[in-house]
Amino acid sequence: MSGVLLEAGGLVKTWQARGRQVAALKDVSLAVAPGETLGLVGRSGCGKSTLARVLTRLTPPQAGSIRFRGKDWLSLAGAGLRAERRHMQMVFQDPLAAFNPRSTVAGALADPLRLHRLVPRERRAARIGELLERVGLPAGYAARSILNLSGGQRQRVAIARALACEPSLVVLDEAVSALDVAVRSMILDLLVDLQRERGLAYIFVSHDLAAVKAVSHRIAVMEAGEIVETGPAETVVRNPQSQAAKDLVAAVPRLVREGP
Ligand SMILES: Nc1ncnc2c1ncn2[C@@H]1O[C@H](COP(=O)(O)OP(=O)(O)OP(=O)(O)O)[C@@H](O)[C@H]1O
Ligand SMILES: [Mg+2]
């Protein structure tokens, strides 16, 4: 883990909602190294999803800079942006919202392969089968409708679709929060395996400190639009400094805090 994959500085995002202003990001800076997982935690409404959306360019910030893979990420446009986008993928809490519900699994996975010209047409079906197997689904699921999957299966397809792009960074926003405990731990294990295999970096956003600690190298704690603490995952959980981190740690079971 050397160098910097993503570096954001001074991000500001204020939402305007019905005449009210919400300072969701006040002055946020962070860095992620290649192959690293940065966990992002904080109470509901502290700005985690806003930060995830700004980093992935789903929402423009009012101020700040982002360098990704050595490029000025916020100034990319047109073909340059399309080419670079595949390197940063996002997985949301509710994968159904991110899919065309009329699509089949194969259709959902074929889109990025075609769009980014990653695999020649005649290799596409085989690649889709490989991607499904990699996330623990039978290749035969390719023919299924997205609607005929369980939440956990759909989230696996969402991860397979992100992987189809061969990204360097995947931003996961509460990606396992809605899943039952067994499926959640399978998916967390899968993420860790994929990281070892491919040197993927993650930004793992969750209000669940236990899940964050299980996968993160470092943890950043957010409170009211600011990052109030960043450190190695063990250190933040065992010896939290900020009140926000102390509150989060106090809310998880002792076994998780103290580890094996
Ligand atoms: N599209 C939007 N329009 C207006 N306000 C928004 C919008 N999205 C978020 N906000 C506001 O910005 C603040 C931060 O919200 P955000 O969704 O980033 O928090 P969060 O940390 O992801 O919370 P949660 O843990 O509940 O998902 C909140 O006050 C929220 O109401
Ligand atoms: Mg959120």
From TrEMBL:
MF-aspect GO terms: ATP binding; ATP hydrolysis activity
Listed InterPro entries: AAA+_ATPase, ABC_transp_ATP-bind, ABC_transporter-like_ATP-bd, ABC_transporter-like_CS, P-loop_NTPase
Keyword flag Hydrolase: no
One of the GO BP terms on file: transmembrane transport
Segments forming domain ABC transporter: 6-249
Keywords, ordered alphabetically: ATP-binding, Nucleotide-binding, Transport
Transmembrane helix is among the record's keywords: no
Pfam families membership: ABC_tran
Tree of life domain: Bacteria
Family recorded in the similarity comment: Belongs to the ABC transporter superfamily.
Record protein name field: ATP-binding cassette domain-containing protein
Organism: Ectorhizobium quercum
